[in-house]
Amino acid sequence: MGERVVLLDLYASMFGMRARVALAEKGVEYEYREEDLPNKSQLLLEMNPVHKKIPVLIHNGKPVCESLIIVEYIDEVWKEKSPLLPSDPYERAQARFWADYIDKKVPDAGRRIWYTKGEEREAGKELIEILKQLESQLGDNPFFGGERFGFVDVALIPFSCWFHTYETCGDFSIEEQCPKLISWVKRCMERESVSKSLADPNKVYDYVLALKKRLGVD
Amino acid sequence: MGERVVLLDLYASMFGMRARVALAEKGVEYEYREEDLPNKSQLLLEMNPVHKKIPVLIHNGKPVCESLIIVEYIDEVWKEKSPLLPSDPYERAQARFWADYIDKKVPDAGRRIWYTKGEEREAGKELIEILKQLESQLGDNPFFGGERFGFVDVALIPFSCWFHTYETCGDFSIEEQCPKLISWVKRCMERESVSKSLADPNKVYDYVLALKKRLGVD
C-alpha cells in the first residue's frame, strides 16, 4: 500500500507507548522518532500546533494527535488484524468509558507521587484506590477486553512500567494491594507487542530522577 | 424495537445538552429526568457509580456515561439517521481531536470566569483565545462537520447558552471577538434539534447566580 508511518514519541511516555503497542498489535511498520521535550523538533510543532505534545502519529504525511484518538485511528485503519475495540456499540462505549477513566485518574495521581514533596503517600493511596477500581472492573477476566487483549488493555498497560517509579517514590507496593492487576500485567507482558513496546522500568525511574532535577523538585 | 431510553440530566448542563441534541438529531424519543445535584437520585448513583455525574443515558436498562461517549454511542446505535461522525477514519480522528480539545479547554476556562473572584478577566481572555482557535478551525465552513452538522458541532453548541453568563461575569463580548463563531451559533440554532435542546441563557445565568450563592462565591 506504500504506507508511510512515523511516530513522534518519547521513550518513557506512557501515552507514546499506547501508540507503540497498538501499532505492534496490528503489525504496522513505522519509523520511530524520539523527541527531546525541552527542544521540540520543528516537525512536532508543525504536526501538533495546538498541544505541541507527543505522541503524534503521522500517516502518509497527515498527523493524528492524542494517544487514545491515535489508538482508535490505528484500530480503524488497520481493522483486519487484532481488533482492539469490540464491535458491539454498548461494549465499545464501556471500553471508551474505562479508557477515559484511566486518562482522567491515573496520570494525575501518578504524577503527584513523584512530582510533589510531602504529598507522595496521599497520592500513593489515591493511586491504589484507582487501581483497585480498575482491578474490580477486570474481575476474573484475563484482559479488560474479556478473553481478548483490547482497547482498555492498550490504554492501561503502559503505566505498568511506571509502577516501579510510583512504588519507589511513594513507598508502597502495588502487588500487595492489587495482586490480580499485577497478574494481568504479567499476562500482557507475555505478548511481544507489549514487552517490546514498553520502556524498561529502571530507565523510567532514571528518567524521572533526571526530570525531578531539571524541574527542581528533587 | 421497544426501545426504552432515559436521560438523567440537569437543565443547565452543557454535557447533558450534548446528549439531548444528539438524541433529537436522531429523532429518538426518551424520558428526561431532571436530577437535583445536592440530592442525587438513587438511580443516578446506581447507574454511574464511578463518577456519580450526569448525564447518564440509560438504554434498555443499561447505562452509558460521559457526554462524548454518549454522543458516539447514540451515533453508533441509531446510525441510519443524521450521522454525526464522518465515515473516513482520518476525519473521524480529527473530529474526536476537536471534541476532546473542547472538553479539555472550554469548561475549565468557562468555570473560572464565574467561579473565581478577581480572576474573571484573565479567564475571559483565555476563553476568547480558545474560542478563536475553534473559530479558525471552523474556517469558512457552515459547520465544524463541514457542510453537515456533526460531532464537533454537538460537542460545542451547548456552551453557547452559557456565553451570556461568561460575558456578564467576565465583562467582555464574544461576538465582538469571534463574529464567525457567533454566526455559526445562529446557524445551529436554526435546527430544531438544537434550539429545543439548549437551555435558555437567562435561566443558565439565574442557575449560576444561585450556584454561586450555594458555593459561597458570590
TrEMBL record, chains A, B:
Major localization listed first in the record, in broad terms: cytoplasm
Give yes or no: UniProt keyword Cell division. Answer: no
What Gene Ontology molecular-function terms does this entry list?
glutathione transferase activity
- A single cellular component GO annotation: cytosol
Q: Which domain of life is it from?
A: Eukaryota
Listed Pfam families: GST_C_2, GST_N
Under the heading InterPro entries, the entry gives: Glutathione-S-Trfase_C-like, Glutathione-S-Trfase_C_sf, Glutathione_S-Trfase, Glutathione_S-Trfase_N, GST_C_Tau, Omega/Tau-like, Thioredoxin-like_sf
Q: Where in the cell is it found?
A: Cytoplasm, Cytosol
- Report keywords, A-Z: Cytoplasm, Transferase
Domain spans labelled GST N-terminal: 3-82
| Catalytic reaction annotation | RX + glutathione = an S-substituted glutathione + a halide anion + H(+)
Please state the Enzyme Commission number of this protein: 2.5.1.18
Annotated GST C-terminal domain ranges read 88-215
PANTHER family recorded: GLUTATHIONE S-TRANSFERASE U26, GLUTATHIONE S-TRANSFERASE, GST, SUPERFAMILY, GST DOMAIN CONTAINING
Concerning its family, UniProt says: Belongs to the GST superfamily.
Q: What does this protein do?
A: Is involved in the conjugation of reduced glutathione to a wide number of exogenous and endogenous hydrophobic electrophiles.
- Descriptive protein name: Glutathione S-transferase
This chain's source organism reads Perilla frutescens var. hirtella (Perilla citriodora)
